[in-house]
Amino acid sequence: MKKFLQVTASLAVFALGSWACVRTNPMTPTGPQTISVSTASSGTSSTGYIYTSSSGSNGSGGLLSLTAHVGDTINLPGSSFHPLYFDAGSSTCIYSGATSNQSYTFSATGTYYFHCGNHASGCSAGNGVCGSTNCSAMAGIVTVN
User: Fold this and answer.
1) Whole-angstrom distance, CA of residue 62 vs CA of residue 48
2) Contacting residues for 74 by C-beta, under 8 A, at least 6 apart
3) Regarding the domain delimited by 34-144, which CATH topology (the fold level of the hierarchy) does it fall under?
4) Exposure check for the chain: N or C terminus, fewer CB within 10 A?
5) Residues 6+ away with beta carbon under 8 Å from 108
6) DSSP output for 61-122
7) What is the pLDDT of residue 15?
8) By 3-state DSSP, what share of the chain in percent is helix, strand and coil, each rounded to 5?
């Protein structure tokens, strides 16, 4: 009987230890995630519009800040009222003035930028081009790890 209790107690400790190892970080994503961005009217923006997402937060002036990982996909809105400009910090556009919704899967780490060609403000290179890394109002930044 004593041997039986020792074996049972050892199995219980092992089982609890295994469970604890599996549960160490239940909030870590288990695979690629999809980030959805939408547009909204807002008084926080100098132009009256912002991008929003449950995956990020809007800072001063309406700039949307997001974090993603390689393999994640971002869904971005585009329309004739809100033409989309999206780039990786250079004047080479991933999307240039897109007037329909766009999806992009991040294949590399880095910083990506997007803004509305009509309602962004403060863009150093201008609203109708890519490569502006300092837009505010209707603009966003994605840090990909």
Assistant:
1) 9
2) 34, 35, 36, 37, 66, 68, 103, 104, 106, 142
3) Immunoglobulin-like (2.60.40)
4) N
5) 70, 144
6) GG-EEEEE-TT-EEEE---SSS-EEEESSSSSEEEEEE-S-EEEE--S-EEEEEEEEEEEE-
7) 42
8) 15, 40, 45
DSSP 57: E
Single-letter amino acid code for the residue at 57? S
Bridge partners of 64?
A: 58, 140
Residue 34 φ/ψ, nearest 5 degrees: -115, 130
Look at 20 and 69; give whichever has higher pLDDT. 69
pTM of the model: 0.78
What pLDDT, on the 0 to 100 scale, is given for residue 17?
46
